[in-house]
Amino acid sequence: MTPAARLAAAIEILDQVITAARDGGAAADTIIQRYFSTRRYAGSKDRRAVRDLVFAVVRSAGERPVSGRAAVIGHARAHDPTLLALFGAAGHAPPPLVHGEPAAEAGLAPHWLRQLLEQRFGADTDRQLAALLDRAPLDVRVNRLKTNRAAVLADHPDWTALPDTELGLRLPSGTNVDQLPDYSEGWIEVQDHGSQIAAAALAARPGETVVDLCAGAGGKTLALAAEMAGSGRLIACDTDRARLSQLPPRAERAGAAVETRLLNPAAEAGALADLMGGCDAVLIDAPCSGSGTWRRNPESRWRLTRERLARLVATQAHLIRLGTALLKPGGRLVYVVCSLLPPEAEAQLADTPGLAPWQTRVLTPADQGCDGFFIAQSSRL
User: What is the widest separation between alpha-carbon atoms in the chain?
Assistant: First the structure.
């Protein structure tokens, strides 16, 4: 593919990404994979170049653009003027530029989201937002049920130990983790540094009854299972059947004992009646805006609306009440969101009867080098 043809392909993909962001469709990575699955003429260098351009353009437009073409023009004017010369060039190029045609506004986040983030970061907002749009590193957690970090590092001297965790490692960019014997044998699990810190905050112990209330595919559940060392009872719950179904095979590979329960939204208490008031610890990794993971899914900035945020906030408050009811007196509660928006974070802790004062921690890409997280710890009175 010529550079102009790569640009045309990026514009076509961006049109699909923008539509998906508006209508709740597939993620950008999935769209790119589908696009090239029917275009076998594109070589690996072409696919990589187009993908890199698509994500560079996505990261540079704060508001959702009107089209892929407008997104590229805005990006080119702000960051890469050499792209402008490719419009109308030979070799399957996009049509020539027209005076006055739309161009996306360069920015780091939609204006209303930026205002919320300014409440947290103040004068540091630009630095924090820029880091939120950097490329994410590749982190794994060593599975203490099967090995230890020193042993894994001895086999991989180019991997580095992560701070604030006993088991975290950072791998070179581009490592195919699922092709490694360490992965197939269950010695490591892919898990962001911040996610590891969040799971460790619950301090799960052998012999306890622990509930992971929003387990999803089970990344944090497996971290809890390792801390419990095969002793006690660990129950992973979620309302998403497809995501929860991924946990049993992962648990088998990791050598972890985990129960799973599929819950019905807004009717979770009935399915958890036998656990009410009897749990030692509950982790609530609540559904959220995902603003802390923009490095991985930068187009998600374009998906979030005020209405969706309000629904998420209501769900989070419901889950905190449910998690509190599950605890025995003195039982521990950790509330986690991969978000840096105050309505999903500190604001959720303002009215939580039955709980001790919260202790909180904020993690950001700019400060800790991990995804953005808000972590709050409390206990049942």
Answer: 72
pLDDT of the residue at 39? 86
Residue 139: strand pairing partners? 170
Q: Measure the CA–CA gap between 175 and 180, rounded to whole angstroms.
A: 9
pLDDT digits 0-9 by tens, 43-67: 899 999 999 999 999 999 999 999 9
Alpha carbons within 13 angstroms on the beta-carbon side of residue 205 total: 7
Of the residues 214, 288, 338, 370, which is catalytic? 338
Residue 41 has pLDDT above 90, yes or no: no
* Half-sphere CA count of 322, side-chain side, radius 13 A: 25
Q: Is 279 noted as a catalytic residue in this protein? A: no
Look-up: residue for tokens 């990791």?
Answer: 254
- Report the distance separating Cα 247 and Cα 240, nearest Å: 12
Q: Give the CA distances from residue 365 to residues 141, 253, 369, 372, in Å, rounded to whole numbers and listed in that order.
A: 18, 30, 4, 6
Alpha-carbon 109 to chain mean position: 17
Average pLDDT of the segment spanning 252-256: 96
Secondary structure class of 353 (helix, strand, coil): coil
Phi, psi of 80 (to 5 degrees): -150, 75
| Alpha-helix runs per DSSP H in 278-343 | 306-326
pTM of the predicted structure, to 2 decimals: 0.94
266 φψ region: left (φ > 0), alpha (ψ -120 to 50), beta (else): left
Give φ, ψ of 50 to 5 degrees: -65, -45
